[in-house]
Structures are given as C-alpha cells and as structure tokens.
Design goal:
It is a peripheral membrane protein. The chain has 11 helices and 13 strands. It has 309 residues and is of the alpha/beta class. Strand 8 and strand 9 form a beta hairpin. Bound molecules: adenosine-5'-triphosphate (ATP).
C-alpha cells in the first residue's frame, strides 16, 4: 500500500540485479525493484519482455544466472519449501484435471498447508459456492480463473503472484475479478500482477514496472507513468479556420501534432493548453468541440516501451 508520503510499506519482495539468459540471449537484464507490504505491484511489458521469467524467478520456479531475490527475507531457491508457505501463485497453463470437482481441488490444495484458509469463505467471496460439485472441465473460463485465485490464496500467503489474471475473461468476469483482487489487498496481502491490460493495471496497481527487452524502462504509479510520457495532455478541436503548422510548432512542450479530417489533435502538457488558447485568440480562430483529456496508461506504455517500434 502506498503511504501518504508516496512510499510503499516495508519491502516484502526484493529483487536486485536479476539476470537470466537463454542460449546466450539475455532475457532479464539487471532488473531491480522492491514491493511493499500490502501493495499491488504491476509488471507490464510487450510480449517476450521477460515478465514471466521475472515472476517465475521470484516464485523459485526458475534459477537466475545472477542477482538476489528475497520474499519476506527468504531465498526462493535455497528456502523453497519455506517460500511456498508465504507465497501463493496462480496456476497458469498447468490446468487441473478436468474430472476434479471444485470441492476436491480445494480440499487437495488445503492439505498442502499447515494452516490453510477456510476454503468455504474463499469460495463464498469468489462467488463459487454453487459450483462446488461442478467438475473443473465444466467451469466457464471466469469460474476457472476464480478457482485458480482461490487456490493461490488457500495457504494464507503474504504475497500472491497473479500472471495474466483476466486473459480470456469477458468484461463482466474481468471486473468481478478486479474486485476480488482489491479485496485480497484490503486484507493486507501483497499482490504481484503481470498483465497486458492497461485498464486493469491503471485501476488496480499502486505502482507499475514497465519492462522492455528484459530491462525496467520505467517504474512509477500509473499517474506518474502517464506524466512521464511525452504528451500527457491531449488537446483536440476543430478550428474555424486553418492554423499554420509553423505557428503550432512554437507551442511549448508540444509532443505531436495530428490532423484527422478537419480536427487537430495536439499532445503536450498543461502549458501547451494555455498557449493554444492564446494562439487561437491572437488569430481570432474559434475552437469547435474543444476537448482536453489526460493521456491514458496505454499512451504511456507505447511511449515508454519499444512497443510502438
Ligand atoms: N525456457 C526458456 N527457454 C528459452 N527461451 C525462453 C524460455 N523461457 C522464456 N524464454 C524466452 O525469453 C524471453 C522472455 O520470455 P517471458 O516469457 O519471460 O516474456 P513475457 O514478458 O512473459 O512474454 P509474454 O507477454 O509473451 O508472456 C522470450 O523471448 C522467450 O522466448
């Protein structure tokens, strides 16, 4: 959780100078970050950026070439058994057997932990109570994801890793799942969230690390990332008379100019907005349907990673 001073709580996940190569190709290159207790920390990046390699190293499923990882002070490789008691991971592609019922899966996973959570409470919160006797193979994609979240939480972990949490879910199931994640955090659990969905990251994450080609290219709050991107304010309008591009080029902090039919779309900052208004007044041009909006995390993602190249 971010405190009022903007700094996260005491670190519960610490990653320093993590490196991993496959066949001589470096896919995680000097990655460092720490995640505070109760924080929702997002890891975002284009396909192949190294996100899963990073979180699977945190889970102790991959052995880094170098670097240091600590989960609540434990080494995920050397102290693997202890780490599985504090860290819950969402099953990804390793599906459960189709014939297993929801109840059987919950009972099976409860047996892995000395002090498991009451799975009845978990399924109630996750809206799965009426599916307890359903076989895994008969659940909808959303219900399967909810079950995976329940299984990740069953050991009462301090940290939970959710990788591609809502991939394949319909918008309704996605929103329901976001509420579950917020509920998990409200109970003080630290969440590491790997996602491709900007809306999800913007809504849920306290801070986000953007990873591109194995390196962290930016690490900030969602709003901080948006402000870091060039053109964090978007100004669009239809001018009553054409505006000269050379006049536009004099605008302060202008990141880009786009003409879309008779509309002008400018990206800049608050300073650009003020300057556009005085430029229009000087030329006695009216701005029809003037809109000033903040850039989204999507815009920031494209600007701050190589995804647009
Ligand atoms: N076991 C492996 N052997 C060889 N190469 C691998 C292995 N695992 C991952 N890679 C490569 O490492 C790079 C990073 O993969 P990783 O799965 O960490 O990326 P990602 O950011 O999670 O991608 P995506 O968003 O597509 O899931 C990719 O180029 C991938 O092909």
């Amino acid at each position: 959780m971010i405190t009022s001073s903007g700094t996260p709580g005491a670190p519960v996940v610490e990653v320093s100078n993590l490196r991993k190569s496959y066949g001589g190709r470096t896919v995680v290159d000097d990655v460092s970050f720490s995640v505070g207790e109760g924080e929702i920390f997002g890891i975002l990046g284009p396909n192949g950026a190294g996100k899963t390699t990073t979180v699977e190293s945190i889970e102790g499923l991959r052995v880094p070439d170098s670097g240091r990882i600590r989960i609540a002070g434990l080494d995920p490789v050397a102290d693997h058994a202890a780490v599985t008691q504090v860290l819950g991971a969402q099953l990804q592609e390793s599906r459960l057997q189709d014939k297993l019922t929801v109840r059987e899966a919950l009972e099976l996973y409860s047996a892995f932990y000395p002090n498991p959570a009451d799975w009845r409470v978990l399924v109630e919160r996750l809206g799965l109570t009426d599916r307890l006797d359903a076989r895994f193979g008969k659940l909808s994609g959303g219900q399967q994801q909810r079950l995976f979240i329940a299984l990740a939480l069953i050991g009462n972990p301090r940290v939970v890793v959710l990788d591609e949490l809502t991939t394949g879910l319909d918008p309704r199931a996605r929103r329901d799942t976001w509420e579950v994640v917020e509920d998990v955090r409200a109970r003080g659990v630290t969440v590491l969230l790997v996602t491709h969905f900007m809306e999800e990251a913007q809504r849920l994450c306290d801070r986000i690390a953007l990873i591109d080609q194995g390196k962290i290219t930016a690490l900030d709050t969602p709003q901080g990332l948006i402000s870091q991107a060039s053109g964090s304010t978007i100004i669009s309008f239809t001018p009553s008379a054409p505006l000269d591009d050379t006049d536009l080029a004099t605008l302060p902090a202008l990141a880009s100019v786009e003409h879309k039919d008779d509309r002008l779309i400018l990206r800049g900052t608050d300073d650009t907005v003020t300057a556009v208004l005085s430029l229009l007044a000087r030329h006695r041009i009216t701005a029809h349907q003037l809109r000033v909006t903040d850039a989204t995390l999507d815009d920031a993602f494209l600007d701050l990673t190589g995804a647009h190249r």
